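Retro notes, item 3 of 5
We never archived the inputs for the zinc ion complex last cycle. Fixing that now. Sequence and ligand:
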Amino acid sequence: MYLQLEAVFEREGANVPFDYAFALSDPVIASPVQVKGSVFNKTGIVSLEFSASYLLKTDCARCGAPIEKTLNETFSHILITHSENEAQDLYIVVDDLHFDLDALVAEDLFLAMPSRYLCRADCKGLCPLCGADLNRGDCGCKPDTDPRWDALKALMNE
Ligand SMILES: [Zn+2]
Ligand SMILES: [Zn+2]
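Structure as it came back at the time:
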């Protein structure tokens, strides 16, 4: 969706709401991204605030369990019409007042994504020896019986 920003920049108090969805191609995004928010001019400063929600579908990086949940992220930006400040990260420069919101939402979402997903913060993962899901209980394997450690111990004892 493109935002036309002339009216918002010209008039203090202007507020342009939006509520739409678009398809964002990513392996973990399993639904259209629903975007809801507004761009508004408050005492001459133009801000963009929105929430973006989508269905996350992936597998736990530790135990492989399927993860499926709706995420809702909120973002806000200050828009300026020309680069008047070196702090580019804080502002979004919209020189032509014709602004591609989808691209910004995509960038915000990708930056907010963790490098890996866990089914829960304290996921215990799989036993490296037998492959059992340790979230379901101890499998009884003793890490000391790992032959790699025996080889290392033998080396250290030499
Ligand atoms: Zn897990
Ligand atoms: Zn085991």
